[in-house]
Amino acid sequence: QVQLVESGGGLVQAGGSLRLSCVASGRTLSSDYMGWFRQAPGKEREFVAVISWSGGGTSYGDAVKGRFTISRDNAKNTVYLQMNNLKPEDTAVYYCAVKRKYYSNYASSYEYWGQGTQVTVSS
User: Fold this and answer.
1) Residue 90 three-state SS
2) Digit-coded pLDDT (tens) for 54-65
3) Could you tell me the CA-to-CA distances from 31 to 25, 42, 48, 49, 53 in Å, in that order?
4) CA torsion sign, 102 to 64 to 96 to 56?
5) CA-only gyration radius of the chain, Å
6) What does the pLDDT average to over 113-120?
7) Contacts of 29 (CB under 8 A, 6+ apart)
């Protein structure tokens, strides 16, 4: 079992920045992948970014490449999502999730999810 708690969402103007955090607790993370997804009203859950807990390798969705950065602090069991140059279309509930062993950008393959944090970008 892994529990995930996100924080850091809020209201920001277009062009601004936010940093989301996701703290994991429960079992020890090792060969896991931690991902960020987002879901806007009426839309499907969308892949944002993923990071390997052990090696630190990363991958990003096309919509956020060059603007968002995922990172982790193993000592704090925390994953971050630094979001820069935010756009109104980034408005969504952002979720972190964890899966074992293999990289994936499919939400259905992730085992554990946080409760989500709202990000609203005004124009």
Assistant:
1) helix
2) 888 999 999 999
3) 15, 34, 20, 17, 6
4) positive
5) 13
6) 98
7) 2, 53, 74, 77, 98
107-45-62-78 Cα dihedral, nearest 10 degrees: -60
Write out the two tokens for 11.
């209201």
Q: Please classify residue 17 by burial: count the beta carbons closer than 10 Å to its beta carbon, then call 0-12 exposed, 13-18 middle and 19+ buried.
A: exposed
Q: The tokens of 20 are what?
A: 């989301």
Q: DSSP per residue over 6-61, as a string? A: EE--EEEETT--EEEEEEEEESPPSSEEEEEEEE-TTS--EEEEEEETTT--EEE-
Identify whether the C-beta of residue 46 lies closer than 8 Å to the C-beta of residue 38: yes
For 88, other C-beta atoms within 10 Å of its C-beta total: 11
Whether 94 and 6 have beta carbons less than 8 Å apart is answered as yes
Q: Which residue has the higher pLDDT, 19 or 55?
A: 19
* Residue 34 burial (CB count, 10 A): 25
